[in-house]
Please model this.
Amino acid sequence: MDFLNDSSHWGTFLFFSALKVVMAFAVVMPMVAYSVMLERRLSAAIQDRIGPNRVGPFGLLQPLADGLKSFLKEDFTPSHVRKVYFIIAPAVSMIPAFLTIAVIPFGSVMGTQAMVIANLNVGILYTFSVVSLGVYGIVLAGWASNSKYPFLGGIRASAQMISYEIAMGMAAVPVFMLVGDLNLGKVIEYQANGAWLVFKQPIAFVIFLVAAFAETNRLPFDLPESETELVSGYNTEYSSMKFALFFMGEYAAMIAVSALMVTLFFGGWTLPFFGLNEAATSIAGGIAHILVFLGKVACFMVFFIWIRWMIPRFRYDQLMDLGWRRFLPLALANIIITAAILWMQHL
Amino acid sequence: MAPEVKDLEIKDTVGKTLDGLESSAIDEQDELQGDKLVLNMGPSHPSTHGVLRIVLELDGEVITKAMPDVGYLHRGDEKIAENMTYNQFVPYTDRLDYLAPLANNVAYILAVEKLMGIQDQLPERCQYIRVICCELARISAHLLGLGAFAMDVGALTVFLHTFTEREKVYNLCESLTGARFTTSFTRVGGIARDLPDGWIDQCRKFLDEVEVNFDETEQLLTRNRIFVDRTQGVGVLPKEVAIDYGVTGPNLRGSGVEHDLRKTNPYLVYSELDFDIPVGTAGDSYDRYLVRMEEMRQSARIIRQCLDKLPGGPVNVEDGKTFLPPKDKVLSSMEELIHQFMLVTQGVNVPPGEVYFGAENPKGELGFYIHSTGGGTPNRLKIRGPSFVNLSVLPYILKGSMMSDTVAILGSIDFVMGESDR
Model:
């Protein structure tokens, strides 16, 4: 195992990358399961109920029971569906959410290793392209189901994606104008040296946040699903683990987008207290950074869930209106203003 | 898909009468596009509130035609009524508008009493208790109606909060009638039992609590931008159309018609009570929501007045031929024994004749038409269910709106299939 200490060796890279992938996966999967749990308990608290508290201590084993139930249910495929696409769709909706996490720095360093799976120089471009893949799973599910309610859900999903992707991308542009780099690690470095970008770019953050809700199909933008009118939207025909995959995909996407927002606007793994702004020098410091990052993500998750249970749902045309006529001009104006300020500072 | 389209065409006899009301914008669209999607909504659908089926014809997300299809919950209540005594039919009225069974009980029994001509002999206390029952039922029904409405447009939490309050109404019903849901509280010439001890204080406590809930619900919805966007200008029902279709209740008042049977045609002691009739202006879903919200506050006001004014005395007509005599007298006195025997075996003797009585129920005017040829059972009993009439306006109101508006409109119309299908 000598090659482990030789950072230039290809085997080192392979070994640690594989380890980080496994670790990230091992952390994210339970996070998905427990954010479902969190959603159920939190919604219960909001709605004056108790929520699941019977399985294990404080109901903490509920996610396991849910997963087991999903596996034991009959995996029913209706005869009228397009089988190949019908089976692929749940996977297509879940995988991109996990792929996003690859470029997000979830900690500083541990030993010699940076806590990011892939230190891409075009990290943000990669993120946007992968995140937008997620919607294909939903569109595919809607069309492959060959049934009217899922079909409407699928159409809505594609329209929603077009409306929000652009505003989301535009909102992030000023961030990179300030940082001067597309690498997410550099974005965090910039914030550690100055103020968090949420204070410098509040408008960009708000647009990004709202677009994130639309990206992840969460209320008030859960139009593809909107269970009161489209029964269950795109996943109406799905059952068993296939349905569970959509479900997990939604939460994984929430975690991914939360992680992205933490990175872009809330300083990633840094905290301006206790010297946590500097890269860690010890293993304990590295773990502290990871915990800071996860804590920030958890705050966003709570916010996502809270919003869901408090407000009604937008209508299809209102959402398009908001995306195209409000957010897109606002995001463009924000870019121009940022550019003007930067230009004046250079004069 | 083909047979479904055909199905729609055949049933269009009702739809054709609407041609004059079509907007020109939709006519233009008709020429532009090719195929339309026929979507079957219900009878098993999360937001058709029971078993309503609507066949929608969609152009994208815009509804070009809507045909409600009722009857999935038909139980033949009207025919059943012909085979039983008047008092025996009371439990069936529980199941009409099952969100306000107390109000149905009262409306039905008032019709029978009007036919017998004893409505003026009712003791004051009985009348006050019946008014309290009606208004409690109204609060309960509107709480659910508004909660379900909010849930339909996506605000799930409101539903659970209003449901918590309804639970308290059920507790009141339970201590009053012995049943939480199917109350069967009224009898010809009175009510099943007097108020239990401490019920008045229990009721006052409930009113204080429920008014806090009204405020909370308003905070969540009334000025919520998304809720307003979803409901304002959606499902507009103009005054004239509402009257033409015979729409009643909060839906009619939402359209700006100040018509409430409690004011225009007072029964029980409503004429002695002080309350306002809220009316809307635009006739859209939002106005219907506001009207219901205010009606609940007025109902609470009415109940408070009733509790203050509640007189003592008997709660039943003291006539052994109408209402069962006290049990202890039955066992000791000849006259009462005969009355008890006759009432139990043959029912209340109702004179020949016919009568229509309509009461202002939570959903609108619940009317009973009774034709009697004398004796203990009606010859024919017809129920005018307000939900049935209110639903008839759907083809008009849904046309041209979006798919997502369907649920907002259905929620704001606030119907109960038990009453529509009978």
Summary: The interface with chain A takes residues 37, 39-40, 45-47, 61, 150-157, 160-161, 164, 220-221, 224, 226-227, 229-230, 402-407 of chain B (CB under 8 Å). Residues 2-68 of chain B form one domain. The longest strand of chain B covers residues 353-361. The radius of gyration of chain B is 23 Å.
